[in-house]
Design brief:
Blueprint (H helix, E strand, L loop, with lengths): L26 E4 L7 H7 L1 E6 L3 H18 L2 E6 L2 H6 L8 E5 L3 H10 L3 E17 L1 H6 L25 E5 L8 H7 L4 E5 L3 H14 L5 E5 L10 E2 L23 E8 H6 L2 H8 L4 H12 L5 H11 L1 H11 L2
Parallel strand pairs: 2-3, 6-7
Antiparallel strand pairs: 1-3, 4-10, 5-8, 5-9, 5-10
Helix pairs in contact: 2-10, 2-11, 9-12, 10-11
């Protein structure tokens, strides 16, 4: 889910439209409790959370949203939008929070540095890793396949009807941060990037590849609960060095590790509300996120219920956030 030097972004067709109409934005409201909010409810007010299209992000957003709603009396909205659309919406408070940002130096320059409609709200505690992976059975049968220098030798294994005469490199949602087309070109690899279309489709492809012992090379990332089910093995690309991804067209190095962070709208930050303070204070681990994400995806638990289960099981972490929010 979300990473990364440059993530391909889905641009909104018409910026003047509300986010409910952009990028298939599907708005869900989680109203504040009718009682028990007290002064906290007045202090918090509206909190509009973007939901980007991968389940790890969804887990983080619903945990923050559940705490904001149930403990601070915030009027929480969830808006299903692609990444840049969320940043665009901060100017008029259509969106207040992106809870998991994977780099995006282009968006930082545009919305934080130039337009000043968004702000960095600090790390969320998750460490992000993006890369190319193969199912475990392939490493057992082809031990040297995890060295990118050997990928052309195995290109025929990965041919599909979608990739033509080249090997297939399977990516996920086209809006995800990816350097893969540039990497294939600049490393002179006989591969074609093909998009599965969603995180769920990418996971299912890897699950079937391991179960059926069929070849698959694909883009994947951590944190992601699926890695506990199928321990995918990362391919070693040329090592990342500072600045090797400065020119998106010339990238020939691996993805960096990302200290994932939170982005908030400047107008939202200026409220200095308890909701804003909660977002600033929020931090958890990859393992925390994977617990909630797995509950949502595999156990089919409603996201708010999954969030509640985690909150109830982790009072110390939640209380630390609330102390900061109510300070």
């Amino acid at each position: 889910m979300e990473l990364r030097a440059v993530r391909r972004v889905a641009l909104a067709a018409v910026l003047g439209l509300t986010l409910a109409a952009c990028g298939g934005g599907n708005i869900q409201s989680a109203p504040a409790p009718s009682s028990g909010g007290g002064q906290a409810a007045a202090d918090c007010g509206k909190l509009s959370m973007a939901i980007n299209p991968w389940v790890g992000y969804e887990a983080s957003a619903h945990v923050v949203g559940y705490v904001a709603k149930s403990k601070l009396g915030c009027d929480v909205e969830y808006k299903n939008v692609k990444e840049e659309v969320a940043w665009q919406g901060m100017a008029n408070r259509e969106v207040d929070v992106v809870i998991e940002n994977w780099g995006h130096p282009d968006l930082v320059q545009k919305y934080i540095t130039d337009q000043k409609t968004a702000q960095d709200a600090g790390p969320n505690g998750n460490i992000g890793v993006i890369g190319w992976y193969v199912p475990p059975w392939m490493v057992q049968q082809y031990p040297d396949i995890t060295d990118w220098n050997n990928l052309n030798k195995y290109a025929d294994l990965f041919k599909t009807t979608e990739s033509g005469g080249q090997g297939q490199l399977l990516d996920g949602d086209p809006s995800f941060v990816t350097n893969d087309e540039a990497l294939v070109k600049n490393l002179n690899l006989n591969y074609k990037v093909v998009y599965a279309g969603s995180e769920a489709a990418l996971i299912q492809a890897f699950r079937q590849a391991e179960a059926n012992k069929t070849p698959l090379l694909g883009y994947f990332y951590d944190p992601q609960w699926f890695l506990s089910e199928v321990p995918l093995v990362k391919v070693d690309l040329p090592p990342y060095t500072e600045g090797c991804d400065a020119d998106p067209a010339k990238i020939a190095c691996d993805y960096p590790k990302y200290d994932l962070n939170k982005i908030v709208g400047t107008k939202f930050a200026e409220t200095d509300s308890s909701g804003y303070k909660l977002v600033k204070a929020f931090s958890w681990t990859n393992e925390d996120q994977n617990v909630v994400a797995k509950a949502i995806t595999e156990d089919k638990v409603d996201p708010e219920k999954a969030a509640q289960q985690w909150v109830d099981a982790n009072p110390d972490k939640v209380n630390a956030w609330l102390q900061a929010a109510q300070a």
